[in-house]
Amino acid sequence: KAIECARDKHATRKCLKDNDLPTPSSCMIYSKEDLPMAAQTVGFPAVIKPINGAASLGVVKVTSPENLLESYEKVTEVLKTCSVSDPNGTAKSGEVSDLVTEVMMEQYLDGNEVDVDIILSDGKVTYAKVTDNLPTLEPWFNETGAVTPSLLPESKQEELIEVSKKMLKALGLTCGVMHVELKYTTTNGPQLIEVNSRMGGGPVRSMNLDVWGVDLVEEHLMTTVGLPSLPPVPEKPITCIGQYSVNAVRSGVVTEEIDAEVEKTRKLPNVKSVESFVAAGDRVVGLADGMPSWICDIMVEKDNAKEALAYVEDLASGFKQPIV
User: Please, are residues 34 and 28 in contact by the beta-carbon 8 Å criterion?
Assistant: First the structure.
């Protein structure tokens, strides 16, 4: 029941509201006839999203009543034509979408977006660390990168961790690896984006392992078989990691030059990895035409987090995208 509640974003918000925990206002949308009520309940700017999704698929910002219907139709189209394995709907494989089609509208949150990675062992928090997320690409909220350890003041990090703990407790989650996504808003402090009752995807495992020496997969397996998860955590970070997801700058087809560009970046100093998501001949989508395709992930390490962030952003901006 706890996991089902965490997977349903609308149910999560109701649970948190019932427990006097911070959560943005929201409203379910079952059809376009519900849009006026959603607009009245939530206001603008707002976000339309599926109640159960992944990787920001079907999430779009709505700025005014005038573009509400258009935004709703965009989301429903994405949920019909895209899938987790084909987030841009470019494969044309005939694969049926694996995304739910129920959507909700909720208050748009400003401020710094973060991830809080937590290990729960027999109801107790044995590990909790904050990672800063870079600003997403709106209106589709495509992820662009992260840096850890967090650059936020310690007081804000502690506040984010404490509210995450309370949220997990309210949902009834007591065991396993959790990935809580929040924003530290400018006026209302920590506000929930979503609770994932699992390890975060993408670079989350490697970033926690590199920086804090904690293997989230190993610790999750420990809790799964009923063993206590008590990872030793250093007082100071082992290293500092900057990560950047390079989004397609325009729509088109990737050319053969992509392999050389990836290899060139891999050989640069302090680059830990470059993971390519496309190959020559792949069709990609740029921001102007929809949810952007990810070209590659770049991960670097430096002695401090500010340097790691600045370096990876510089590499990403200089990464040449051979798209025609």
Answer: yes
